[in-house]
Amino acid sequence: GFSMGISGTEVAKDASAIVLMDDNFSSIVSAVKWGRNVYDSIRKFLQFQLTVNLVAIVIAFVGAVFGVTPLKAVQMLWVNLIMDTLAALALATESPYDALLDRRPYGKTDSIISKCMWRNIVSGALYQLVVAFVCLFVASPMPSDPTRAGFFIFPDVPQYSKAHLTFIFNMFVFFQIGNEFCSRKIYNEVNIFAGMLQAKLFLVILVVIVAMQVLMVELFGAFAQTEPLDYRLWLVSVGLGLCSIPWGVLTRLIKIRDRTLERVAPGTILAPPSPPITGIPIEVAQPSAPPPPEVPLLRLGEPETPTAIVTATPPP
Predict the structure, then answer these.
(1) Can you say how many angstroms the Cα of residue 176 is from the centroid of all Cα atoms in its chain?
(2) Residue pair 132/59 in contact by the 8 Å Cβ criterion
(3) Which long-range contacts (CB under 8 A, 24 or more apart) does 220-225 make?
(4) CA 238/CA 172 separation, integer angstroms
(5) Which of 48, 76, 106, 269 is the most exposed place for a label (fewest CB within 10 A)?
(6) Do 184 and 249 meet the contact criterion of CB atoms below 8 Å apart?
(7) What confidence score (pLDDT) does residue 236 get?
(8) Exposed, middle or buried, 116 (CB in 10 Å: 0-12/13-18/19+)?
């Protein structure tokens, strides 16, 4: 039960499960709202993290099989910095909203990764992998030298050149920026930009990531093993990376039913059935059966009483 933190006794505080420190029952609503918001923030980060890790592992494995290293060690460290630190701050600092109270509570046995999250993870990773492999392996003859393979979007860029791999790295980072937008909503919400203006820290972190990515590509090439890109490669890499946002919106049109997403009418009490009341056992007397009817006994030596037989004569 509950106890008051100011006016309550120490015995009541020790016996209660929740102590209201300000003696205000409205704190219960605030605590439930913040608790659900924290749980959703953990789920958001998991969805973002699993998508990035799945794509990075598959790209590294396929690149190793074909003898190509699309993402260098320093570039992977930069991607890990985006995933582990900046993304956690961006996704875990959004304030709770009142609509969280309209949902059903999470069950004790519910998986932390819901079916809606698996849909978002698989669809987001599928888009990133398909686009990345097409841009990496599909080639076209170079105009200056038809015997050499070039990047199929811009044939004048040699395939697997430093500019080509920098394009892949830049596109991969903007994949994750788009994925970060999509990870703000982890269920069937189509409007992933809802409440964006209130998430000021989220916007600040995105600006920091974009600014640092520009520096990594344009200025820190010797350190990050990149090459400055021209405006064409910048536009296409950023465009393909941010196309993961409309892709994420489209995949949310495939609705997946989740029990916790069902709205609860105001006043509905969502409580488990109370156990039966137990106490001192009381024996209840069962009603006794009625006594059998008495049968007259005949004494020995006594003649039986003759029974008169009446015969009804019909009228003439």
Answers:
(1) 18
(2) yes
(3) 223/74, 224/72, 224/74, 224/75, 224/78, 225/72, 225/74, 225/75, 225/162
(4) 9
(5) 269
(6) no
(7) 96
(8) buried
Q: Provide the angle, in degrees to the nearest 10, between the axes of the packed helices 231-242 and 244-251.
A: 20
Backbone torsions φ then ψ of 158, nearest 5 degrees: -60, 140
47-96 pLDDT, tens per residue?
999 999 999 999 999 988 988 888 888 998 888 887 778 888 888 888 88
pLDDT at 178: 94
C-alpha span between 208 and 81 (Å, rounded): 12
Share of the chain above pLDDT 70, in %: 82
Region 179-193 average pLDDT: 90
Do the Cβ atoms of 149 and 161 come closer than 8 Å? Answer: no
Residues 152-168 pLDDT 10s: 889 999 999 999 999 99
100, two tokens: 């969280």
Q: How far apart are CA 116 and CA 131, in angstroms?
A: 23
pLDDT at 228: 93
Residues 103 and 36 sit within 8 Å (Cβ to Cβ): yes
Taking phi first (over 0 means left), then psi (-120 to 50 degrees means alpha), and beta for anything else, what does residue 156 get? alpha
